[in-house]
């Protein structure tokens, strides 16, 4: 049966803003994060400690973290690929990091300048030290349903990379549909395969991009598999600059609207959140792609 409550893992300030042509001022990012928390979100991925020339939109990571109030009931995970990123995260007082691996060779090269095996050589000491610092580590696995260069990705290959990432010492594995290619049947198949490999709903999260408009249907499929952590991005912002053809994430408002209708608790006030996304859409100079944000704005 379906879960009674779920955690929404908000990625708009990271996955969202990393892919926007307009660079948002640090003060506006901080205001965005503050408003996300005020709408009831309790896990807000704040930024990335990656190489500044790789993601110029997030070069102000230190400044953003300095200005948000780190302690408290809200957690602010950040992306960290390597020891250099971890040094920066430690100095900034970060408690939760996320490493991000690729299920395919092509995307590992494009996104991390590493082969699939080399990415583990980079992540292993990073996770070891993060755990030593008492941090919590999440692991993403990207390109779980298809890759722009390699096409379909075999389920066994995805599960193997996911298993290796998780075994480094992660507390949660987020299944990334980087390109938005998944459909509900494939979601069931992949989640079943993870479950068979000993990675069940208690340690999995799903991370759907909405390129083909399937993210909400895929989320419903994941609910049927009893997944309880859903990544989503306020207003549907986002994509990955190193994954051609990837559009924004599942909009948090679209997810929460469905959860509300199903009577599944998320703690998120969808109307307050939609106002924040409309505000951010103005800063970005383009309307939100979320149906719920547009419908509520028209009321
Ligand atoms: P590299 O060029 O191989 O790095 O990049 P390197 O290890 O050879 O180091 C080269 C120089 O960069 C060194 O400086 C390092 O200190 C510096 P030098 O000694 O030459 O003066 N450096 C750094 N500086 C600051 N912060 C750092 C850092 N690391 C090295 N962290 C690297 C390898 C991993 C760094 C690079 O490929 C990178 O930054 N990639 C990140 C790409 C990215 O952020 N992509 C988007 C996020 S992934 C995503 O969106 C998918 C997801 O949403 C899930 C899904 O949808 O599937 C998560
Ligand atoms: Mg993503």
UniProtKB/TrEMBL annotation:
<keyword id="KW-0479">Metal-binding</keyword>
<dbReference type="InterPro" id="IPR000891">
    <property type="entry name" value="PYR_CT"/>
</dbReference>
<comment type="similarity">
    <text>Belongs to the HMG-CoA lyase family.</text>
</comment>
<dbReference type="InterPro" id="IPR043594">
    <property type="entry name" value="HMGL"/>
</dbReference>
<dbReference type="InterPro" id="IPR013785">
    <property type="entry name" value="Aldolase_TIM"/>
</dbReference>
<feature type="domain" description="Pyruvate carboxyltransferase">
    <location>
        <begin position="6"/>
        <end position="274"/>
    </location>
</feature>
<protein>
    <submittedName>
        <fullName>Hydroxymethylglutaryl-CoA lyase</fullName>
    </submittedName>
</protein>
<keyword id="KW-0456">Lyase</keyword>
<dbReference type="GO" id="GO:0016829">
    <property type="term" value="F:lyase activity"/>
</dbReference>
<dbReference type="Pfam" id="PF00682">
    <property type="entry name" value="HMGL-like"/>
</dbReference>
